[in-house]
Amino acid sequence: MTYIAFMATAAKSRQKRELKSQRLELRLAPSAKALIHRAMAVSGLPAAALALQGAKQVLEDHERMVLRAADRELFLAAVRNPPKPAPRLTEAFRLYAANVCP
What we know:
Layout: H1 3-15, H2 30-43, H3 47-63, H4 69-80, H5 87-99
């Protein structure tokens, strides 16, 4: 995320004010604390905003799958032409339908 995009996102988050009633305490190594203070000085954001942006970025990275072109083509080919289900899978579906969805 570029600095400009980060600041734009931070500005948007400041527009939607929510009552700050929760606390989060951390034990940090001195080097981690120094890093956070440097980021606060450079960005002008408080530690809470930096933590929130970091959490959002982690979740976004986790929830989005980025494929290289070759991998994307393999994935799409499998979706377009799925393999025939294995006999054990077909049997499992049959048993499920008979016992759970009569």
